[in-house]
Every structure is written in structure tokens, then in C-alpha cells.
Amino acid sequence: xxxxxxxxxxxxxxxxxxxxxxxxxxxxxxxxxxxxxxxxxxxxxxxxxxxxxxxxxxxxxxxxxxxxxxxxxxxxxxxxxxxxxxxxxxxxxxxxxxxxxxxxxxxxxxxxxxxxxxxxxxxxxxxxxxxxxxxxxxxxxxxxxxxxxxxxxxxxxxxxxxxxxxxxxxxxxxxxxxxxxxxxxxxxxxxxxxxxxxxxxxxxxxxxxxxxxxxxxxxxxxxxxxxxxxxxxxxxxxxxxxxxxxxxxxxxxxxxxxxxxxxxxxxxxxxxxxxxxxxxxxxxxxxxxxxxxxxxxxxxxxxxxxxxxxxxxxxxxxxxxxxxxxxxxxxxxxxxxxxxxxxxxxxxxxxxxxxxxxxxxxxxxxxxxxxxxxxxxxxxxxxxxxxxxxxxxxxxxxxxxxxxxxxxxxxxxx
Length: 414
Ligand code: SF4
Prior knowledge:
By secondary structure, the chain is of the alpha+beta class. The protein folds into 3 domains: 6-231, Lambda Exonuclease, Chain A (Alpha-Beta Complex), CATH 3.90.320; 241-310, no CATH class; 333-398. It has helices spanning 9-14, 17-20, 31-43, 51-58, 65-76, 81-102, 174-187, 212-231, 241-244, 254-261, 281-312, 341-358, 364-374, 380-393; strands spanning 106-116, 122-124, 140-150, 154-160, 192-199, 202-209, 315-318, 321-328, 333-334, 397-398, 403-410. It has a 6-stranded mixed β-sheet with strand order 2-1-3-4-5-6, sandwiched between helices. A 3-stranded antiparallel β-sheet has the order 7-8-11. A hairpin with a 2-residue loop joins strand 7 and strand 8. Helix 3 packs antiparallel against helix 5 and helix 3 (31-43) packs parallel to helix 6 (81-102). The chain starts with 8 loop residues before the first helix and ends with a strand. The mean pLDDT is 86. It binds iron/sulfur cluster. Iron/sulfur cluster binds at residues 15, 17-18, 236-238, 241-242, 247, 249-250, 253, 255-256. The site of iron/sulfur cluster has 14 residues, from helix 2, helix 9 and helix 10.
């Protein structure tokens, strides 16, 4: 039975079901998570970064090394253009901290420690062990220290890229507490642990010097967690932690499914739903908790439905009515950059109405507005047809990309 990773220890303290059941997990990847991973991948290169050496190894110009690394990181993590643009700023903030720490101490990035929660023994883990569980002891968990500074005092830093990390404190973070313990057991010294919250404005560092007393308590907590994981029955324990601590099973968990059905059990879901009345504080609390679960689970559920239907095709939901993917032609758009297009619009609408129709951007809707301004009621349809016909002839009406929506339909309507 695998142990939770350090970042999930907090969730495991509330509910061990993701680690005791056979239900698969939904990785629930997000652009924010991908951006965080790209920042970490670049930050990992910072200690001992030697631009010249890399340039000579790759046979490229020194000036091209850093842009190449950013481009590779953006590509490997599938970043959007906007995220790829802000990546260098985040990494440069981190590099300031790494440089400063490296002046007086040895710094290492992405240090993997295997910590045995029952024997309290810690060791450096080989790279391959991070993903390959078969190479670890049954009670070992892997903790990755983003930056380990070994100076007069050991210092473990964890980079976080979400704005909410600004308010997290390592003293209260199950992940940082476990990491501090692993560093302590590895180096034999009680460390300082810090959350380095990185954003566009810089790094906000929140630190805590762990005492041996605290570290012994953390060791006992992890031991107790492991005991519960092995000995207690495997049951989900729902609560606000399902959403607040990002349970990876939220869309598959039986308790969440139960919550969907029981969202308003005391009122027996009166239909229409607008008829729900909250009758007490207790009722409100229970409804609020379940609604939060639904909100969290709904995007996952919708995504799963979409994936299923795109793969399988439409499903008959009621006799004769199907629900499934429907392909649409791309929406047409007007491109006035095409030579001759502006002249066509001006000729049909006159300069005033043409200017108004395309002032912000040109579209079929804005041209229809221009036609309404330029022509009398009985002449508008003919003018619009002629205008669009001529624009099409000069190549100014472009086809958009086709797209798919999920819809209900009858087969004879298709
Ligand atoms: S969704 Fe909630 S109850 Fe279900 S496994 Fe996750 S934390 Fe436990």
C-alpha cells in the first residue's frame, strides 16, 4: 500500500481513501500546474549553471542558451503563449535567491530523500526511485527538496507559484513539515524550512526554524498515519478537504457521488429546483459542503462525458433522442486586410456607415449593422446579400476552424 507523497500528506491526514482503495486517480492536470512544473524545471538548473559550458557542449552561441532553455521548458510543459512569456520573470526571481544562498553555502536543487516513516531512517534517493515505487521500501516516502542549502544551518526551500502560497506558513504546511523532518534525519541537524512564494513581483519567503521537539512530533504523526493506513478500514471521509486540498479522486470517489445524490436530501430535491428552502444553519452547512463538492467535481465529470462520447459516438438518452458530439463548420469571419475588401464595403454602405461598421472590428454582425444604417427596411436583405457576395468573391470571407459541441438531437434531424 503506497504512502502519500509529501504534497498530499495534508489530505491523507483527513482521508486515506485515495491510498487505500483501488480506484484510479484523475490527474486533473491544469495550466497552473504545468506552469509550476516548468518553473521548477528551470529552477532546478540554477545551482552551478554554466552558460559557457552548455553553449560549448551544444555548439551554440552563449546568448542563445537561456532562451533555448525557456523555449524547451515551455514546449515540454505545454505552456500557453502568455505563460511562456512570464516564465523567465519567475525563474529570474528564484535565481536571485539561489545566487545569494550560494555565496556562503553549498546549494543543491531537487534533492530527493527517501524517508522510512516507521524506522525514521532517511537516505538520498537515486533519480529513478522517484517514479519507480518498486525500488523503495514499503514504508518509504520520497520527498523532493526544491533547494537544499547546506551552510551553518541546513535550509530547505520549496518554491510555490500560486498567489495563495504567499499566505502559507511552513510551520502549518504538512508538506514542509515532512520535508523538514526528512532533511533532519538525513543531515542530523534541525533545518530551517521556507516556502518561497514566487510571482511576477518577486519571491516572498516565509520560514520556520524547526526544533527537534517539533520534528519528533512530525515523525510520530507520520508513523500514526501509516499505522492508520494499514490497520483502519478503507472508507472515504468526505469534507471540505476534498475540494480545499485538491483530492485527486474527487470525480471518482463514492462519497462524492453520494454527495451529488444527497445534495439536498432533507428537502428531497423539490422540483423545480428553485423551490429549495434552507431551513436551518445546520441544513445550510450541509448543503454548502455538498454544493462545493459538486462544483469541484462537475468539470471532471463533464470532461469524462465528453471523452467518452467523442470516442464512442452519440448515445440514445431517451427513445429517439441522442446525445453526442455534433460537428459544426467554423464560423465565417471577415478579413478587411484582403485587397479590395474595404472598397467593397464602402461602395455598398457609403463611407459613414462603413466606418461605423468596421471601427472596432469587422464581422458579419457589424456589417449587418452597417447595412441597417445604410439602407431602408425593404432593401436591407438584398444589400447584405450583395455585399457578402462581393466580399466572398475577393476572398475576404474566411472559414473558421470546425468545432464540436455536445448536443441532443434526433437522427432524422442530422
Ligand atoms: S473525494 Fe474526499 S472522501 Fe473521497 S477520497 Fe477524496 S478526500 Fe476522501
